[in-house]
Amino acid sequence: MTVPGVSFRRLNIDHTGLYRALMLRAYSEHETAYISSFEERAGRPLEWWQRRLADPTCVTLGAFDAADALIGTARIELYQRRRERHKVDLASLYVMKDHTGQGIGRRLMDEALVEARKLPGVELMLLVVVGENLPALRLFSRLGFVEYGREPKAVKHVDRYFDKGLFWRPVSADYVGPA
Length: 179
Ligand SMILES: CC(C)(COP(=O)(O)OP(=O)(O)OC[C@H]1O[C@@H](n2cnc3c(N)ncnc32)[C@H](O)[C@@H]1OP(=O)(O)O)[C@@H](O)C(=O)NCCC(=O)NCCS
Prior knowledge:
Elements: E1 7-10, H1 16-29, H2 38-42, H3 46-54, E2 58-64, E3 70-78, E4 87-95, H4 104-118, E5 124-130, H5 134-142, E6 146-157, E7 160-170
Parallel strand pairs: 4-5
Antiparallel strand pairs: 1-2, 2-3, 3-4, 5-7, 6-7
Helix pairs in contact: 1-3
This protein binds coenzyme A (COA).
Residues 26, 30, 33, 93-95, 100-106, 129, 133-136, 138-139, 142 line the site of coenzyme A.
């Protein structure tokens, strides 16, 4: 699916400043959608963000508008242990508020699955949804992700607890998902 005026490409170390600014915006706009907080990530030095984008076991994708501003992102992270290298985590999915509802999140997820298929031996994509994040739950369900477990009270934000919903799907393009 194409999104008019929006292009999708991999981010690299040259995007560090843009990526850091976008993710800090994500954490502050959606303070319960992620496990990491704005304060935690704002305290990381620039080198930490550079390492994140340079990590050869991860792929970070960017969505750019017609003026080439970074407006969305998604990231896959390969499991490191030998017996888990058939899996990737999907992390840090975000579309800027002004650009939601146009298919950008869906396209970032499609691209993340394409990138996962390119990694030798990768079969499964896993992800976590914090609390009742309905836009995210609906998006993942439309892509065939299935909930395989729930961690109660997994995230504590001030005095509120949120469950973690654990989801997975095969990365194969042939996968059609549950009926
Ligand atoms: C979740 C998010 C990435 C969706 O991005 P988006 O660009 O708006 O998504 P799309 O326009 O591609 O929509 C794809 C599907 O997501 C679901 N969706 C998106 N926004 C929704 C909303 N407000 N309410 C319900 N479902 C929604 C729908 O199923 C939609 O498909 P459909 O319209 O064909 O039913 C975006 O809302 C976001 O960044 N949210 C804040 C951060 C976040 O929650 N990240 C995920 C952490 S797990």
